[in-house]
Structures are given as structure tokens and as C-alpha cells.
Design goal:
The protein is α/β, with parallel strands linked by helices. It is 29% helix and 14% strand. The strands form 3 sheets. A 7-stranded mixed beta sheet has the order 1-7-6-5-4-2-3, sandwiched between helices. A 3-stranded mixed beta sheet has the order 11-10-12, with no helix packed on it. α4 runs parallel beside α5.
């Protein structure tokens, strides 16, 4: 890292949404509410192995990751996989081996705030470009280009042909392309893993519902892969994380069931909001060629004006298509977040967008009387 940049950024941090309270039903954290069967047993069994160092090669994890990707992108082998402690670790490594002080880097906006911060920590200059215009931007003047697919927080995905054409232009310009595929598992779209000149960052956070495990991997080829492997922290993935990660990546039926549940739950939420006269339900434009789960709609309290680009205003916004809403059966065991307005009426939904005061509206759920309060925040994934 660049020492001057680190000193300049001391005390600063990217603001993230979500709540750490396990009793809060938090719609701002786009994490699967379920985990694959057997995770607890695998973790417990692996804990005994934590008394010794994990194998530096992580053969089982690498093989599981390669086979998981091979379902959509044939030809990815275990040697291309670099195990790391979460998707953000893969992003940091990629930026570290490609960006020098003074370099300019293409980053999407609005998108995950850590991209720009990682570039700044290396002394680079993050150049923010509208996420839907980034693929058509000339990459030749940049040391690295970053894409989030599907994009966070807008939830839309890039056309596969357009994304591969961008990768080809980046390769011709000598500019590596970093593709963050944290949400791609919620869709049936192909991965860019194994494409020359491309680094793919993946994690177990979103799809497998394990943000606290901190397990992920980077996928790259050739010299780019060698540089990332060289810079990676030795034993950067603990025994339990590696074992649970390999187990999850082999659960194809879990992935299929999750994708189906995303579609049905999104429709259930849409119908609930649509049934309440106090909410206007609108349908955002879908990206051309999108093959995400069923397009969703947003719900806006009547009288509130939805603003373009995900602006922060008092409204209930639909979850991005890539995200899995919480099951109704789980909602009954949750309570409202601290600070949300409480009323002795059937279930309320507290709206607490950043920069605004919490507001409450009676629930539109058919089982409202039996459910507790939940928190909805208008903020990025």
C-alpha cells in the first residue's frame, strides 16, 4: 500500500448498511436467509483441524470452487483459483498487484464503495463512471477497470456479450478487468472466470448466507493469476472456512432452490404492497438481455416521489433482483430494530432511509397480526 495514501485516509471508512443484531429483520442486507444443510456439522468437524495450519494449497476448496464455476463456464480448473478470506480480500489483492500510485482506475457508480477505497489505499485515482456506461468507456487510459455484475445496489446485470466485448477491449489495451460476481450465483448467467486478462472475485457471503465466515476466492489466468497468488496471505483461509466453503460450493440443489425462492418471494412482496392503497407499485426498466430471476417492482408510499438512480428518500424500495427476501415463516421470530417507532397495532414496517427519520406504516401482509415489526432501509446492498 501507499504509505502517504494510508496516512491520508486514516480514520475514514466506507459506510455500509445492514444490522449486526440477529433479532432484526433487515431488508437492506442482501444475504440469503438460509444456509446449506450440514454447515454446522462441517464447521464443528473442521474445528479440530484448526489446531494445525491449513494446507497452503487448499486442494479441496480449490477443486470445489473450480467445479462450481465449471457448471456455467467449462474449462476453469483448480489452478486458476486463489482461496482468500472473502470477496473483498480478492478485490484488495487484485488492486494491489495492478495499481501504482498515481494510476487511474475505472470504477462503477453507484456501486460497492470499497472499490474506490482500495484504489485510494494504493495511491491510485478512482474515476467513477455510471455503471451502465462503464462497458463503453475506453479502458486504454486506466491501470484497471472494475465491474460489479450484477451491480450493487441497482441489481441489474450486464449483457454477457457486451461484458465479454469489454473484456476483449481491456485485454487489447493491456488493462486488467476485475469483475465482482458476489451476486451472480443468484442468477443463471455465466461467469467470466477463466477469461484471459480478467480477475473474478467470488464469495460465500451472499448466496450461501455466511458473511461472517469470510471465505471467497479469486479466479485468474497467466501472469495475473501468478501475481495474485504471490501477494496472497499465507494461510489466509482458516480450516473451518475452507471446509465449510468446499461443502457449500458442492450444494447445487441449494443454489437451484434459492433461485426459485427469490422469484416467488419477490412476487409475494410485490403483491402485498400492491394490495395496499397507500403504496404505488412501479416496475423499473430491466437491462436488455437480462436473465435474472423475475423482474421486481418497487413500492413507494403515496405522496412520496421515487427518484432516479436510487436516491435516498423516504420510500420502500424493492430488493434487487439478485437478492433473496426473508421467508414469511422466519419473520415471526424477529423484532423491530432499536429506534423504530413502536405502536400497539398489528405489525408495522419501520422505514429508516439514511438521512431521514424513521416512519411507520401498517403492514400489508395477510398474516400481519401474527408478525412482529421489521426494518427496511433505503441503502445499498
Amino acid at each position: 500500500m501507499d504509505r502517504e495514501a494510508v496516512a491520508r485516509l486514516a480514520g475514514s471508512a466506507v459506510t455500509h448498511g445492514s444490522s449486526d443484531d440477529p433479532d432484526v429483520l433487515d431488508f437492506s442486507a442482501n444475504v440469503n436467509p438460509r444456509v446449506p444443510d450440514g454447515v454446522a456439522d462441517v464447521y464443528a468437524d473442521a474445528l479440530a483441524g484448526a489446531r494445525s495450519y491449513p494446507p497452503e494449497e487448499y486442494p479441496e476448496f480449490r477443486t470445489a470452487a473450480a467445479e462450481y464455476l465449471d457448471c456455467n463456464e467449462p474449462g476453469v480448473d483448480a489452478r486458476a483459483v486463489v482461496p482468500v478470506g472473502g470477496g473483498l480480500a480478492a478485490i484488495r489483492l487484485t488492486v494491489a498487484v495492478t495499481v501504482d500510485p498515481g494510476d487511474r482506475v475505472l470504477v462503477p457508480a453507484p456501486s460497492f464503495g470499497e472499490y474506490a477505497r482500495e484504489v485510494e489505499l494504493q495511491g491510485g485515482d478512482p474515476v467513477r463512471v455510471a455503471h451502465d456506461a462503464l462497458l463503453s468507456t475506453d479502458p486504454s487510459e486506466f491501470a484497471l477497470a472494475v465491474v460489479c455484475n450484477p451491480n450493487n445496489p441497482t441489481g441489474d446485470a450486464y449483457d454477457d456479450g457486451a461484458l465479454r466485448a469489454c473484456a476483449e477491449r481491456c485485454r487489447a489495451a493491456g488493462t486488467p478487468l476485475l469483475v465482482d460476481e458476489a451476486f451472480l450465483g443468484f442468477t443463471d448467467r455465466p461467469s467470466l472466470a477463466g477469461t484471459d486478462g480478467v480477475v473474478v472475485a467470488r464469495s460465500l457471503t451472499k448466496l450461501f448466507g455466511l458473511p461472517g465466515l469470510r471465505a471467497g476466492f479469486a479466479v485468474a489466468t497467466g501472469d495475473l493469476r501468478d501475481r495474485i497468488e504471490t501477494a496472497a496471505i499465507t494461510w489466509g483461509l482458516g480450516w473451518p472456512a475452507a471446509a465449510v466453503g468446499a461443502h457449500c460450493l458442492d450444494r447445487e440443489s441449494f443454489v437451484t432452490a434459492t433461485r426459485e425462492r427469490v422469484a416467488t418471494e419477490r412476487e409475494r412482496l410485490r403483491m402485498a404492497f400492491d394490495a395496499d392503497e397507500r403504496f404505488d407499485v412501479y416496475e423499473p426498466a430491466a437491462p436488455r438481455g437480462a436473465r435474472l430471476a423475475r423482474p421486481g417492482r418497487g413500492a413507494t408510499p403515496r405522496g412520496a416521489r421515487p427518484t432516479p438512480g436510487g436516491a435516498r428518500c423516504s420510500r420502500v424500495r424493492s430488493l434487487p433482483t439478485c437478492c433473496a427476501p426473508v421467508d414469511r415463516g422466519r419473520a415471526g421470530s424477529r423484532r423491530a430494530s432499536r429506534g423504530a417507532t413502536r405502536r400497539p397495532t398489528p405489525r408495522t414496517t419501520a422505514l429508516s432511509p439514511r438521512g431521514s427519520t424513521g416512519r411507520t406504516y401498517p403492514s400489508t401482509s395477510p398474516s400481519a397480526a401474527s408478525e412482529r415489526a421489521s426494518t427496511v432501509r433505503d441503502r445499498p446492498c
